[in-house]
Amino acid sequence: MTASNATRELPGFPFVSDAPLEPPAEWAQYRAKCPVAHVRLASGDEAALITRYDDVRSVLSDPRFTRPTPGDGGARVADTESGGVFNSEMATVIPQHGEGHLKWRRMIGKWFTAKRMNALRPGMAAMAEQLVDEMVAKGMPGDLKAGVAFPLPVWVICDMLGVPDTDRDRFAHWSDVMLSMTRYTQAEFDAAQQEFGRYMGGHIARKRAEPGEDILSALIADTDAEGEVWSDKLLIATGIGLLIAGHETTANMIAKMVAMLLADRGRWEALLADPSLVRTAVEESLRLDANAGIGMLRYLSEDFEVGGTVLPAGTSAMCSMASANRDESAFENASEMDLGRSPNPHLAFGAGAHACLGQPLARTELQVVLEVLLCKLPSLELAVPAGELRRVEGLAVGGLRELPVRW
Fold first, then answer.
1. Is 405 domain-assigned?
2. What does the pLDDT look like over 366-392, one tens digit per residue?
């Protein structure tokens, strides 16, 4: 569905909340009265907004539907002609459907097993401790996002991909442009995509010549050995995708998690008293994230009934996992933070064939950072009232601009 006179009358999405850690009021209103609604995206295009847990899970889990691609003519998320990273060259090169997508996921998924994450854990903890020490040495107040939340996942994913983390400022700029919905022009997006592609292409050429102990070297060797050589375009798109996803979302989530836990001092005290709650506290923070970004867009290639509404083929469905995670029909006392909540089948990482590949890595990083902060900075507190924290606006993945803290 593309922009028209009719869509200009539709509510704009994503919705805005004045309180940085609280959800927009529209989520609960739509879940109660209009679980399948029509909204206008930042691009001006129309989408069907899905807000209830069962409905979101149903759409995301259905193997018939995938992310819109330029050939579908589906809704664009961003206001650039390309639709940002969602309809970028990267999205067209990586297989989105069927056996090709499953094979791609299997090749990448080998690097995100629980066994590999456990092996990485000591190194993550040592780096987190070093970053905390450096933040403390600079004095109060500190910015926990800039000091810890951002550099840790950058260091981890750069190590996994064999790229120097000294280039992290360049990655941050390219990622920011490619994930933006409103802040950059088409020309700026194209430039960022081309620069990132050239950088990653040069890196892959070096890995072909001198392989290392990293994902890209392994992908080159494994695909060559199986007689199915991945093109440089696919390797570049994969490297860019992993680099963006591997640091941007986790860096933002670390800061939001700590902010949520410090916003109510009782939560932090409960974790200090019982550190065994760290794992469930991480999951609950993921569930309650009110600044999670736009959600997951799916292109319906055939008529589909959801929430009592038949959506026709050609509809772009925006699945709000963050709204679904606060659905009272799926979670008891859904609006409350229960640090020991278990089970916790939240949809923060999506569901189905396109569920986040890197979720074991993200979970491990979140757990490690929380464990280190509780141990090294038990007196940690927000340096500003929670209501004065500032959101990052116009980004496909939600976050805070900074996280001012004292200790």
1. no
2. 999 999 999 999 999 999 999 999 998
Distance in angstroms (rounded) separating the CA atoms of residues 92 and 252: 26
Pairing verdict, β 309-311 and 316-319: unpaired
What digits encode the pLDDT tens for the residues 217-276?
A: 999 988 755 666 788 899 999 999 898 888 888 999 999 999 999 999 999 999 999 999
| Residues 282 and 257: beta-carbon distance below 8 Å | yes
Question: Is residue 261 situated within a structural domain?
Answer: yes
> Whole-prediction pTM value?
0.91
What CATH code is carried by the domain that includes residue 303?
1.10.630.10
Predicted confidence (pLDDT) at residue 401 exceeds the cutoff of 90: yes
What is the token pair recorded at 60?
């995301």
- Give the C-alpha separation, 402 to 392, whole Å: 9
CB-count exposure of residue 92 (10 Å: 0-12, 13-18, 19+): middle
Rounded to whole angstroms, how far apart are CA atoms 26 and 319? 14
Beta bridge partners of 38: 48
Q: Is the dihedral of CA 73, 27, 350, 196 positive or negative?
A: positive
